[in-house]
Design goal:
Blueprint (H helix, E strand, L loop, with lengths): L13 E7 L5 H4 L6 H13 L4 E6 L3 E7 L3 H16 L11 E4 L1 H11 L11 H16 L4 H20 L9 H12 L7 E5 L3 H12 L4 E6 L2 H10 L5 E4 L3 H5 L4 E4 L10 H11 L4 E5 L16 E5 L4 H12 L1
Parallel strand pairs: 5-6, 5-8, 6-7, 8-9, 9-10
Antiparallel strand pairs: 1-3, 1-4, 2-3
Helix pairs in contact: 4-6, 5-6, 7-8
Length: 328
């Protein structure tokens, strides 16, 4: 992008535009979560519109674009048009959920986000790594310069200080731990149950660790590649049943709990899948917890009797209760 090596930092040119769990439900947030294959073209469009530096951030809680531009009004209009392009929606349908901040307010916002103070689960450990990964992709795409580099490195340093100099990480919580807590709240004795975990990425690995602690009867781990699934099982010294994603439908018929956290452009579990497996299960209840954004599970699965579905926003009540408990 343009003018990356300015000797003087001008935070007045900073802009962030986004939406989060505080302003929009997961049904809206997932529309703005770009697949990796579209990220390069997205950055190219920003560059063509006069945006000088940019970092696109997407997590289960938020989608945000941090950028610098001489003409902030034009840059914001560009983002609105791109949002319309990628979602196929007029901006009037989503702008009420979108926030825009400028200058030093952007700095304060990023520090709060990276330090997990703006997370659905305050004090969670995953957000810093997720922002680092987004920043890394921007660096690799050549869309960062002096301002973004210094801003994000300062944010990472601040996040580290917050964790080491405060009690925010005392008894840490996470989306992964809360997903398992939800599963525990459903059953009187979770140790007698079996679970299917779909996705062996960073979030999947965390969920697996929490599930293993509960001594479940059986855990099935589904992933695109067996190598990564085998690696995380070795790392935590657990022998899960590892299957490929195309065998998920077979596993669905045998487990009590399903937790999904895989990155996919389409639903991994459809309404048709559930109808078929419920016949095989003889109507035995199945509990689905979908913490992916975009969502992995077709929300219409709940139209089938004895199918119970929770998404990442449904976990907020548990997060809020835990936060109240930590404050007492």
């Amino acid at each position: 992008m343009n003018n990356k090596n300015k000797s003087a930092l001008n935070f007045g040119n900073l802009i962030v535009l986004g939406l989060s769990h505080k302003t929009a439900p997961v049904e809206t947030r997932e529309l703005f979560s770009l697949p990796g294959s579209q990220l390069s073209s997205f950055y190219e469009r920003l560059c063509e519109a006069g945006v000088e530096e940019a970092v696109y951030v997407s997590t289960c809680n938020r989608v945000e674009i941090f950028m610098t531009a001489e003409d902030s009004e034009s840059a914001v209009e560009t983002i609105k048009r791109l949002m319309e392009f990628y979602t196929k929606l007029p901006h009037e349908q989503f702008m009420s959920s979108v926030y825009t901040r400028y200058g030093t307010d952007v700095v304060k916002h990023l520090l709060s986000v990276v330090s997990s103070l703006d997370s659905m689960v305050i004090g969670e450990n995953e957000i810093t790594g997720q922002i680092k990964e987004s920043y890394k992709k921007a660096v690799e795409s050549g869309t960062t310069g002096t301002i973004m580099n210094r801003l994000f490195h300062r944010a990472f340093t601040t996040a580290k200080r917050v964790r080491t100099e405060t009690d925010i990480s005392k008894n840490p919580l996470s989306i992964a731990s809360i997903a398992v807590e939800q599963a525990k709240s459903i059953f009187h004795d979770i140790s007698t149950k079996s679970a299917l975990l779909i996705g062996a990425g960073e979030m999947g690995e965390l969920i697996l660790k929490y599930l293993v602690k509960e001594n479940l009867h059986k855990i099935v781990l589904a992933n695109r590649t067996s190598e990564n699934a085998e690696r995380i099982c070795r790392d935590i010294d657990y022998n899960a049943d590892i299957i490929s994603l195309n065998k998920v439908d077979q596993a669905l018929a045998e487990v009590d709990i399903v937790i999904t956290s895989v990155t996919a452009p389409h639903h991994v579990i459809t309404s048709a899948d559930i109808k078929n497996i419920m016949f095989e299960r003889g109507g035995k209840p199945v509990f689905l917890i979908d913490i992916a954004v975009p969502r992995n599970i077709d929300p219409s699965v709940t139209e089938t009797e004895n199918v119970y579905l929770y998404n990442v926003d449904n976990l907020k009540d548990i997060a809020d209760n835990n936060m109240r408990g930590r404050m007492q």
